[in-house]
UniProtKB/TrEMBL annotation:
Pyridoxal 5'-phosphate binds at residues 117-118, 260, 326-327. Pfam families: Aminotran_3. Homodimer. The gene is bioA. The lineage of its organism: Bacteria, Bacillati, Actinomycetota, Actinomycetes, Micrococcales. It comes from the Bacteria. Keywords: Aminotransferase, Biotin biosynthesis, Cytoplasm, Pyridoxal phosphate, S-adenosyl-L-methionine, Transferase. This is Adenosylmethionine-8-amino-7-oxononanoate aminotransferase. The modification N6-(pyridoxal phosphate)lysine is found at residue 289. Belongs to the class-III pyridoxal-phosphate-dependent aminotransferase family. BioA subfamily. The keyword Repeat does not apply. It is found in: Cytoplasm.
Amino acid sequence: MSDLNTDLLARDEGLLWHPYASLDGGAHYAVTAAKGATLTLADAHGSHEVIDAMGSWWSMVHGYRHPVLDAAAHAQIDTFSHVMFGGLTHAPAIELAERLVAMAPGELAHVFLADSGSISVEVALKLALQYQDARGKSTGQRFLALRGGYHGDTFATMSVCDPVDGMHAAFAPLGREQVFLPRPPSARRTEDGTWEYDEALLADWETESRSLAAEHATVLAGIICEPVLQGAGGMFIYPPRALRILREIADEHSLLLIFDEIATGFGRTGELFAGEWANVVPDIMCMGKALTGGYLSLAAMLCTPAVAETLRIGSSGTGNALLHGPTFMGNPLACAVACASLDLLTGPGDPRSPQAPWREQVAKLEKGLHDSLMPATDLTAVKDVRVLGGVGVIELDVPVKVHELTHAAVARGVWVRPFRNLVYVMPPYICTEEELRTLGVALTGAIEEIHGA
């Protein structure tokens, strides 16, 4: 490895915090180049060309250095890269909002552009509280959330994450106490397209969920969930039918249903938005990650006209503002790249048509992940292998030896970041069949090396 790359890692250590890491050794590789689905990593042992199986934490759907996205960024920089959104507007933000409304399900017609996924969820929670206050339910200050859920790292979002097994249990005393529904039973989508799950367990879950909602209805503002796939809470897949039950509960008690589609949106699970597996439209929806194709931080919150109008009029007949305003709200550079990313995802036609580029890409990705990861089931340490759309999960029966397995995978040509007992992948949509085969062989080999055959 060059002195430059050695110096980068040395300079980083003790200076920069990395996600969920101490100051000592949070970075193990320096990135020196990226293109397509691959990263060039460097450490003390040399240079490694690897497939980015994480898709830059699930966002880099079109790959690195995509010429269309690069061109959109350059064009916007040549105009202006940022301007405050308070009292001003601009074409990239308007175009993006129009595009999102057109492709969102149902009547989600109003858009708040946030600067990260966590902030979009913060805004969604604020909107739900203001909505209930505007309709005269001042007691509606809490939320129903699912055990196993994850919605971000800011304080309000932490409060609706799993309070026991989540990453934020240490901060629980500082947050508002929410009401948690049990996690629905697990589900699996079979190769013939049907959903398999234990109907009796789902019926029990429904009974308990309806009872909890009724018990706390007077103090609730809304229900929040990651539809069908819980991400950081364990890459857990549950029956779409559960979303219809949550919709019914919300309607029965006049609660707002919030879908956190930050990880699942834009085709990742095999539908454009994961809530569409159940044909359920939420009152509020958050999206992010893949929104800009992984180029820049941007997220959005959408709501229905009924929600927006209630807030606008207010219970007293006076107008009410949505009380949030990030400095980089509606950043023109991010909005311009997002519009270009949506062009690549949907093409010129119906974004839900079989010919939409994302649909063909994710279908190939799903098959490739299934074929490449299923051999891992032969390993004694592997408890389960599951695939949904562009998500592949190898679940071990023991906690993953994270650093050892990561190094073993990199040595085999794949960048992966396991957690808990999960070795999971969310690679770019543009991965080739050969890259997916390499991914499967590398992860199976790495697990066998570190955790045994």
